[in-house]
Amino acid sequence: MKWFREKSLYGQLMLSAALLSTATLVLGLIAAWEALRALDALESQRLFGQMLLAGTALWLLADRLAVWIAKPFHALARQFRVQGQNAHTESEALRESLQRATHALQEAEAERQRLLAAVANKEEVKNTLLKQLIQIQEEERRRISRELHDETGQALTTLLVTMRVLAESLQEEQQRNIVSSARDLAMDTLHGIRDLAVDLRPPAIDDLGLAAAMNRHLSRFRELHGLAVDFRVQGGQDPITGHIALALYRIVQEALTNILKHAAARSVEIRLQIHANHVLLTIADDGKGFAPMLQERAVQENRLGLFGMMERTKLLGGSFQIESAPEAGTLLRVIVPNWKEESAT
Q: 324 forms bridges with which residues in the sheet?
């Protein structure tokens, strides 16, 4: 029988039913044989034949009943096998899809890493070029400052001495007044050139440090513009010199220029906090301030000197923040590492 050869739940049920029916029939025949031995031969043969026929009919009935009972299990087992085959096929397809997706993700990650490396390389090149540009600018400022102080300043000093001698040699009062007025004008020009030379490259930064250079610059700033500027230094025993001092000095210069041009402020507070690992510079004014959207647009358009201040801070590995609102003033906060370096050249 087919069900006998199948190694399935259906075949196992059918085999069990057949064995059970056969065992029942054999046991029944054995029990009947003991009863038949007491009868005569003809009667026992007839009764035995009836019992055999009844047993055979019972065995066939049990067989059909087992088939009827096991048939749904056979269908269910067949459905499971089909579903198992389909599941295996779907599993293989899913595995291949996952492999393709994994490969695609790996390629995308490799491409992302390549793009990040390219961006980082471009950013590094940009920072290098910008740093070189700032260094070139500072060198050019230093050269111009030296020429103004040494050559132009000396020439004006010589001119002043000559004009003084000329004024003393003149006899007429009107001529002496004219020469004296020209001498005063030359004197004012000499002072202006010296101030310009100091602004271009303050020697106090290299000689005395940032705080001393800031005090000198702010003293002239107060005299020229009449703006109340409160400058205080907190912490730190060693003077800040080198590239850090120069960058912070330029940031303060640019911030004060912005305040004069745009803020309409009455007073400014500048705080320089020197810590072991970093330097914090804050500049706060009581001016009219501006909306954040104006700040973003100003940075994008490279206006108000914000871009230059931000780039100087970035090159030092620091952070640059601005807090402002209309009619609420502006707070500028710069934090840079406190490197121990030689004076900038």
A: 330
